[in-house]
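INPUT
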Amino acid sequence: MATDPSHRILFEPLRIGPKTTKNRFYQVPHCNGMGHRWPRTMAEMRGIKAEGGWGVVCTEECSVHPTSDLTPATLMRLWDDSDLPVHELMVNKVHEHGALAGIQLVHNGQSVSNYFSRIPSLAPSPAPTETGNSTQARGMDKQDIRELRRWFREAALRSRRAGYDIIYVYAAHGIMTLLYQFLLQRFNQRTDEYGGSLENRLRLVREVLEDTRDAVGHDCAVAFRFAVDELMGPEGMHKAEAEDIVGTLAELPDLWDVNVADWGNDSLPSRFGAEGAQEKYVQFVKSLTTKPVVGVGRFTSPDTMAGQITRGVLDLIGAARPSIADPFLPQKIKEGRSDEIRECIGCNMCTSGDYVAYPMRCTQNPTMGEEWRRGWHPERIARAATSDSVLVVGGGPSGLEAALAAANRGYDVTLAEASHALGGRVLGETALAPLRQWKRLSDHREYMLSKQTNARLFTQSRLDADQILEMGAAHVAIATGAVWRTDFTGIHHRFPVPVSAPELIISPEDIMSGTMPGGRVMIFDDDHYYLASSLAEHLAAAGIDVLLVTPAAEVAGWTHFTLEYEHIQTRLRELDVDMVCHHGIGGISNGHVRLECVYTGASTPVEVDAVIPVTARNSRAPLFDELMTRQAEWADHGIRTVTRIGDCLVPGTLAMAIHSGHEYARNLDAPDPGDIPFRRENDFDTSRIWPEFTS
Amino acid sequence: MATDPSHRILFEPLRIGPKTTKNRFYQVPHCNGMGHRWPRTMAEMRGIKAEGGWGVVCTEECSVHPTSDLTPATLMRLWDDSDLPVHELMVNKVHEHGALAGIQLVHNGQSVSNYFSRIPSLAPSPAPTETGNSTQARGMDKQDIRELRRWFREAALRSRRAGYDIIYVYAAHGIMTLLYQFLLQRFNQRTDEYGGSLENRLRLVREVLEDTRDAVGHDCAVAFRFAVDELMGPEGMHKAEAEDIVGTLAELPDLWDVNVADWGNDSLPSRFGAEGAQEKYVQFVKSLTTKPVVGVGRFTSPDTMAGQITRGVLDLIGAARPSIADPFLPQKIKEGRSDEIRECIGCNMCTSGDYVAYPMRCTQNPTMGEEWRRGWHPERIARAATSDSVLVVGGGPSGLEAALAAANRGYDVTLAEASHALGGRVLGETALAPLRQWKRLSDHREYMLSKQTNARLFTQSRLDADQILEMGAAHVAIATGAVWRTDFTGIHHRFPVPVSAPELIISPEDIMSGTMPGGRVMIFDDDHYYLASSLAEHLAAAGIDVLLVTPAAEVAGWTHFTLEYEHIQTRLRELDVDMVCHHGIGGISNGHVRLECVYTGASTPVEVDAVIPVTARNSRAPLFDELMTRQAEWADHGIRTVTRIGDCLVPGTLAMAIHSGHEYARNLDAPDPGDIPFRRENDFDTSRIWPEFTS
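OUTPUT
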């Protein structure tokens, strides 16, 4: 199909300094947990985005010097020439598809403790680093500043050698970058010409911009990434100061890449904000510069994107998360298939790649991170040799993904869901207001399946083992999900907690299907990700008195990795949710829960009217188990394989469930992958063991 | 010198299955944060221990299969043959010095979420994994158990190919290992022959032991590492059950490596236990087996070690931390130089290598982790070309280390300390009971310096710039340390907090030098490592009412990485220390502190009689600054360099201070190392970029 005329503006080329991008789709720099450690994984991921139509594809942060050492995070490095091959690999992959390659050079200043390099950290003024290990950064003297400028210049020259088209000067994301630290009064307390007035605080940024232009500006575009607002009032970067900065530097960069800080505000989880949430902060920029402006906003609607350009908000549609969820988003819009976009749900599973230090994954896009090591392409999948029948039992996230991927392979797919609607746990979880946008997970798959002629979807179709045998599909996938345990067993309690008042217990599913308990409700969170706090928010917003108890030191601790943590903490407090950490449950009797301190065992009785345990889940396995005991009957019915997938195989995240369903379909009729179902980046080579060692 | 006769028993060889160790010094398996990611760094570190006289040197955990994926930690792997070169490198380094090499094969079961491999985790019974990301492990079926046994067998065979002498079957450290998970009722709720009775729960361990013997037992010793007590009463592993287990398996392994669980009890920080703390738990083992027994206890005293053997507690002296602090501990005992042992202080900085995922460091041993990349040897240091004079101003940790290392290089060293005693901040911090054992840092250096003929130490010798110029040393190191700020600036408060009652403020140094405030004392911790909780413990133990406030989610959060966290939490509660998290300080007025919620800004007044801020430090820089302004006068006095080191350069951990002092001495008269003062393990090779890719 042809491009929708109202979207054609998105495909107009645009000059960026000495370079021209073919369209307005701009993958801004974003971390991925792969970086220099898994370079093939990283480069293939970036290359596929270029293939999917992004006109510009950038790296993540790239450190210019070992005084900026982000260990244990695994981002890019350009410390010396030995780092070049990794970059050349990425640039080549991006250029193959006609996209421009950008690199975000960074010095992280006082945000890092240089755990690997063990060199003292640098800062505008002496201050603790952000790692909480009683370590400070050194206030830079003039010689340090000269050195820093040299590092940036040399990194820019190396970047050009690697083939990059766009080279960033980077002052955004709050505390994360040294140049931003220089801009901010709370970090920059210098009394020389680099501190004090805005002109002074801006001096280093200007020098690095000028140095970069001077070094590579004839050949490469120089971008400036700048956070125009920290959303903390005049104590931080705010509109008035940002206007001064943009007005002052206006034409110096070839491109303005603007956003808000900190990272949790920039990559705002969908639980806390909608598409285009940054417009009100960044819209002023274009009025102060003639240079192109790129910004982000978790854009997945081409109408919204085109509107950003026609309304003069942005020139280029920046994206990190939407390009992760759907690397082919531009191509789909170009081909008039924007209904097929796999829209980012804003869960921020992707950012956990950086925080945990593993290759990024995506809840929506199960191929993310698997492009190189498993050869999974987000839009292409091997046709099956046959059109054998596949029966998927259960229409939750893994069942839907398995059905969709199997249908894409050409199998004849039947999906049977017991309940009245498709979605499985997604339906339940998105009944909680905080998680509403995650419904895109099932909506997208249900829609794509509805377009397949070789897939049939049935709801209200509970199947028993006899019926499944009767249907005689060649392959049967059991995707019947899991149910939350109500006996409190989990990480902290390995055995059920004594309960003499079972009527107090309400399951998470009860709440998700509409139960509204009265009085004081206690939620016990031994799950530590998003559900318990979502339940708390859901209930507290309805006026219910909520007490959230966890044996951990923190409520929702894992959400640090998804940038949700701070937002959750604030919201729960705004909703007057009481929180008690470091406590398990000693027992539950009539009207009382006995809390037990994790460390001392000290007991505290608490009056409650209901208790919701969020601890662990049981796979819904009986159907699978019965089919396994009747394996002797399979052949008679033409059944070759019966396989558990998703939460029925093992309860986990939504990302795991969808990955599991996808893997199932990829592996149908495929050879056994052996013990290691992926290729590894094991580069260690005995012939290079001690290349320079002289002891 | 000759070996002390009472220590000779430590140098008697011992048969371990088909192998013989030359002595009783046994470096038990221990993590190091290097693993498969930095193999040269790891192998050189292990090799130097072998050189230092350890009869056996083992790896850390080595995963046998991608279902046991410890990412983001970087331990060893033996998943397929591509992992062999890393192991061969290590084995060769260990064998070079006549030591035996051991490998600790592991499957981590439900303790890991397989963040990298993305394969469902395995467990005896379905249960959440330990990572807090709402992910569970799959209960293993019989086929899984057969597979697991195959993985262990294949890993054992690969281990033999790599040249290992001792191959571990590993069931210790609490939740960390699948075989231990099978042993424990709270994880193993199986109803088949692998669950229920102890015989059943022990079945898998026995099978893996037998499989390993069968596979490699003729050539390699088979060790069994087993935690005899979890120190949690009958709910966990306890003496009665451990006796049954040892009695049952008695002669099956060639070696018993016994300890207590969890890791925080095994590698007990010195703050919570002394040398030999495990004896009472493990001493029964030898009565139930004729096979050699190794155990640990942070042994650094050769008398204690010899006693362990003569009293029949252990046959081999196991060590992790003492071998990190002093890789040459056996050699020093052998040569009758046990007074020169650099004794482990039990701070557990080393374990942070595993937790943070960086190459391990050691507070006592600044060369740890630098052996390969900087060529630093713990006992050898390049002689200087000259015997130029070096003046070290300040006798704290960095000054002492700089003086010692410079003296070892042959420089003519003078150290001048202003106060009445050497030690600097170590003196102050070790005045707090919890940190007493850390005094070894300064004691060791002071003692070693006292033996040097080319080093002179002066106390009560405060020097001003004129005097320093007058003295005219070729090299001047300024090691004047840092002082704690009392204005509350730190990570949370970037500007001073309004204080209208300054008489309430007490500095950490005041407490460390003996001040005992009365009434209710608030400690404000924005440092997050050990000091605030040590102050709290010190004061509370003296009967003072203590309130510990932090803007973080947890008190002493960084101590997770040093295995101190849980112990600190328990102890502070036992001492009735009140704790308030997520709060900053709004202001301090007469008798009141106004706490401010980090998330909502909500204000809570608290009555206090004193406030101790533990937030950040100021370098004591005036002397250095003055010398820099008088640089023109240096040459006249023969001064070539003036350098800040340690906390005076930048406040940090004790490990950083000592590393800084050591680096200073190593670099004297050395060529400029350029931007990257170490070699890197950059193995990525363009010629091997896409070796097997077929898209």
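end of record. Chain B touches chain A through 106 residues (CB under 8 Å).
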